[in-house]
Each structure stands twice: as structure tokens, then as C-alpha cells.
Amino acid sequence: QVQLVESGGGLVQAGGSLRLSCAASGRTFSNYCMGWFRQAPGKEREFVATITWSGRSTYDKDSVKGRFTISRDNAKNTVYLQMNNLKPEDTAVFYCAAKRSFGNDYYTLPREYDYWGQGTQVTVSS
After folding, report:
1. Which of 6, 45, 60, 63 could form a disulfide with 117 if both were Cys (CB 3.0 to 4.6 A apart)?
2. What is the pLDDT of residues 76-109, one digit of tens each?
3. Closest among 7, 45, 41, 48 to 24, alpha carbons compared
4. Among 120, 10, 60, which Cα is nearest to 70's?
């Protein structure tokens, strides 16, 4: 069982930056592929980025366009999402998710993940 708690969201102006954190419980953190998803009002939850236990990562290029960076610190049981050059269309609730994985594969679909945080609101003003 894994519990995830996101933090770092808030209100920023377009062009600003935020660093989201996701603290995970449990000794087996390194056995999970971690992901970030976001959901805007009236929209489906969409993939943002994911990172495997070994640090292999991928992004939704159409949405992120090189502005976001996912990272993890297994010693701290924490995954991060550094978001730069934020745009109003980035406004959404951002969710951290964990998928149990013993390999080094990516997972980009919400239904593939086993645990979810409560979400943190990111609002980008214009």
C-alpha cells in the first residue's frame, strides 16, 4: 500500500515556474513507476510525465513541449515535477500516481496506475 501526497501547487502568472512534489509512503518506493497527470475542469485526466524507478522518463510532448522536468529522489521517497514557462492552459489539478513495477517500462494511462494522490491545484493567470 502506498500513500501519495502532492504539494507545491498554487497561483502563478504566465511564464512563471512551479515545482510540484509528491511524497510517498512505504519502504518499497523504488519498486514503483511514478507519474504526473493533470485534469482541467470538464476534461479527461491526461498524462503529463512519468519516471521509472531507475530514472527513465518520458513526457507528453504536445502538452509539455520541453517545459516540464520529472525527477525522483528514491532516498526521500519523493517525485518532483519542475514546471517552467507556465501557460494558462496548464491550469489544472495535478495528480501524482504510482504504478507497481519491477521493470523499467513507461506507463502513460491513468488506468495503469495503482495509487493516486489527492491532487494539487495549479492555476496560471494571464
Report:
1. 6
2. 889 999 999 999 999 999 999 999 988 888 899 9
3. 7
4. 60
